[in-house]
Amino acid sequence: MHGVLLLDKPHGLSSNVALQRARHLLRAEKAGHTGTLDPEATGLLPLCFGEATKFSSWLLDAPKGYQATLQLGQTSSTGDAEGALTPGEGPLPQDLSVVQAVLDSLLGDQVQVPPMHSALKFQGRPLYDYARAGVEIERKPRQIVVHQLRLLDLNGSRLMVQADCSKGTYIRVLAEEIGRRLGCGAWLAGLRRNRTGGFDLTQAVTLDQLATEEESQRLTHLRAPEQLVIGLPILQLDSAQAHALCHGQTPAATPPQVALGQAHPILRVHDPLGRFLGLAGISDLTRVQAIRLMAENPQPPMK
Q1: Catalytic annotation on 38?
Q2: Which fold has domain 3-62+199-227?
Q3: Which is catalytic among the residues 38, 80, 164, 271?
Q4: pTM recorded for the entire structure
Q5: Are 235 and 256 in contact (CB under 8 A)?
């Protein structure tokens, strides 16, 4: 069994527990996810099974989208509901244009320091373990990009925002910065991931729904492994080229025009019937070199 399941992860479950429950329901042997969601967060969690796990790293690097709910007028020692709360100093914002101006000021490239209350590992342990023990660990700043911060709703002390950003962005850190710039303080009260790469939450299925379905019906939710790399250009090979590539050789081929000029283009490789073979690169301008190939029979063309 090979494919991608778009799961709507429930509140209170770690990403790994959600993965194992889906794996059990699908009777899958090999499984992995494409980036964790905190137990308190909900929403889109793409799960990979079988040969799809070979291509999961391409989705790890994809931009993400979140619907974030901020509690204004307070700060939290952890940036969320788990921490000690302190009243903010300034008044709550009333003018939507002022709020949107603050959101716009946070767009673009920036440096962000990961919070101590996060699952980021240090010497094999998540940072939140150290934080709960009162130990502060030095964290390296990371480059992130905030593509969009759009005001969805402002109702008293509750602010709802759509945040689209690069991988590695901590929304709770953004929430705290929004509160600082508004002058009233803020912490992250709720987080729901609704986009990752080309996938959308509206396409996802819940664990409860899977549990009520027959096994054959559960399998219909699986998407082709190729959908993990849908943004890459396609190189279609003839029968001889495809056979050579799948047997460890580097056949000559003309790369698609879209990939020309790139130092190391990565391509989705198809056989003459349009079936997905895996990923390959171009060396010496004309030689096709395998990067990740499907071990099983080629996957049929995506519908």
Answers
A1: yes
A2: Pseudouridine synthase (3.30.2350)
A3: 38
A4: 0.89
A5: yes
CB 38 within 8 A of CB 26: no
Distance of alpha carbon 84 from the chain centroid: 29
Of the segments 163-177, 242-256, 263-277, 288-302, which one has the largest average pLDDT value?
163-177
CATH 3.30.2350.10 segments of the chain: 3-62+199-227, 64-193
DSSP bridge pairs for 285: none
Structure tokens at 168: 């590695």
* pLDDT of 120 strictly over 90: no
- What is the CATH T-level fold of the domain 232-293, as seen in this structure? 2.30.130
Q: Is the pLDDT of residue 298 over 80?
A: no
As given in the structure block, the two tokens for residue 240 are 């001889």
| pLDDT for res 263 | 54
Strand partners, 236: 270
Say which CATH class 64-193 falls into.
Answer: alpha beta
Instruction: Assess contact for 46 and 230: CB atoms under 8 A.
Output: no
Give the phi and the psi of residue 38 in degrees, each rounded to 5: -60, 150
Determine contact, residues 23/49, Cβ cutoff 8 Å.
yes
Residues 6+ apart with CB under 8 A from 74: 85, 86, 87, 88, 185, 186, 187
